[in-house]
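Database export, one record per block. Field names are fixed; values are copied verbatim from the stored entry.
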Amino acid sequence: MQINQVRKAVIPAAGFGTRLFPATKVVKKELFPIIDQNGRAKPVILAIVEEAISAGITEVGIIVQPDDLEVFADLFKNSPTPELWQKLSPANQEYSQYLQELGKKVVLLTQQEQEGYGHAVFCAKDWIKNEPFLLMLGDHVYKSDTEKSCARQIVEIYAQVNQSVVSLTTMPTAIIHKAGCVTGVWQELNSLLRITQLAEKPSIDYARQHLRVEGMAEDEFLCVFGLYVLTPQIFDYLAQSIKENFRFRGEFQLTTCLDQLCQAQGMTGYVMKGKCFDTGLPDTYRQTLIDFR
């Protein structure tokens, strides 16, 4: 079977960031600053794009609200004003040129109405066309425990298994109601899982009954880490979900459609060798500023 190379990444960034209000009234949460390992202050979305590029991705589609096109274009497409350029240090002038080159790989896509994460992903359908793609969250940054970036790890697993891959991490019972969870059968202990079911934000009772994974502690479950490589068939299930107006808590979700894709095509879970930092909540954003560097 032909294994298609993963060339494109999709980053939904069209939400309102309500959990970070009122800061998000004036600054998109994807543009909040973090400090990287080199001590450089950069917007969250830039760190995510760089993560994608580290995996060999050649085109990055960022899904934004129409009114936000200008601010994202300002970051990735527009040169600094002459006044600002003159005030930049030589190192920052060099970095500005690097940003311009990076921006050539960025495509801005729009989500007209904010109808949930699944709906945002669906907005990339025409751009993705018929190839596998890397899907990333717009408010999570990653730090690998190995020489390979987290994004590269999952892209290489896709090349190995030639089916959709969901990255996983272990979570305690107390917080699984905030995450997508999976169950399945180990193909490679504590590394590769043949997924048999995905569930969006399950109750503890449901998880204990249906989502246990052999060999894991009583109070631990496998939950979604925030990186995916998906085959384009995911768009068929998203289209069906939208057509039938099938919503979870008022929105079109991705996880239900992932479960359908899993049942139809099979799906691999990969326990990520790395850490994930959530910048979408006040406390976790604060912790990211401390730990990410």
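Remark 1: The two ends are 42 Å apart (CA to CA).
Remark 2: The longest strand covers residues 220-230.
End of record.
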